[in-house]
Amino acid sequence: MSQDSSVIFKNVVKAFNDTQVVKSINFQVNSGKLVTLLGPSGCGKTTTLRMIAGLELPTSGEIYISGKEVSKVSASGRNVGMVFQSYALFPHMTVFQNVCYGLSNHKSKKLEMLDKAEKALATVGLSHLKERYPSELSGGQQQRVAIARSIVIQPDVLLFDEPLSNLDAKLRRQVRQDIRDLQQEIGVTAIYVTHDQEEALAISDDIIVMDDGNISQIGSPDNLYKHPKNDFVAQFIGDANKLTGHLIGNEENCIFKIHEHSLFSYKGKKPIGKYDVFIRPNALKFIEPDNSNDVFFPAKIKKSIYLGSHTEYQLESAWGNLSS
Fold first, then answer.
1. How many CB atoms lie within 10 A of CB 274?
2. What sign does the dihedral 7-69-83-197 (CA atoms) show?
3. What's 291's DSSP letter?
4. Beta strand residue intervals within 162-270, DSSP E
């Protein structure tokens, strides 16, 4: 594993025939960080991951891994490990043999290969299952075997292509934390692809939000949630109620109003005019109007959905339909 294991994209474009699926993107992933490529299906995130792996080569632009340009280098010439959505384990091989296979293409000496495989299995907590076959393992255990096979080569960069999509909800939460803990323990640079916003928020140092082949915003989970730069990010990262109103007043004292209802005061530098605002559901609460100094408005509950830890309400109001 290289001491510098950063990944840099400079004006990278990927086109299939006349269609650009990745449109001149730029970003940097620093050594030892876990960064998630997040976005809806068809946004270009998986193609971007495959270009890092060398499974796709860019149409134009430059890709650097560990300080070296690899834009035209094939997958076999890059020290990159990849964990696939399907696990891609060999059913006729034992757990131990599957992990050793990752080293067979690196011409490791036999004793060295066996030692590295043992250590990789110990790292993911599967030493006691090394003689089993993939069919004898749970989904979470198979995923950890796939990770062990990837880390055994001591890659500069470890890539995850929607690795939890085949697991049930409870197991997904457990395995995603296992992945995060492992990444921090071994200090490998990791790039993770998902369309699941909760997954991305839970494990990432930074998130790269993609939409239609472009990067909409890059930032920490906290920054993206609290300070989205555009409508797409605001509505894709967490739930949000979009309301349209007007900022009125002067530079020293502005009020944002919707249908003559004052929503909040504003002391920033935006000019007066029409704006959209986004309100997170957790910012809304039920109150008794006579006993509160908060901004309040009447609303009708159209639907309630009980989710165990909380209840979601769909509201109808003069401001529009909201969720809380």
1. 8
2. positive
3. G
4. 189-194, 206-211, 214-219, 241-250, 253-258, 261-266
Pairing of strands 214-219, 241-250: unpaired
Contact by Cβ (8 Å): 28, 67? no
Contact in structure between 240 and 280 (CB atoms under 8 Å): yes
The string of pLDDT tens digits covering residues 129-183 is: 999 999 999 888 998 999 999 998 889 999 999 988 888 888 888 889 989 999 9
- Using CB atoms within 10 A of its CB, is residue 48 exposed (0-12), middle (13-18) or buried (19+)? buried
* C-alpha to C-alpha distance for 241 and 20, rounded to whole angstroms: 32
Instruction: Find the helix or strand (DSSP H, E) in which 223 lies.
Output: helix 221-226
Helix (H, G, I), strand (E, B) or coil at 41: coil
What is the Cα–Cα distance from 135 to 98, expressed in whole angstroms?
13
- Whole-model pTM: value is 0.87
d(CA 71, CA 60): 9
Q: What is the DSSP letter of 271?
A: P
**Token duo for residue 133:** 């076959």
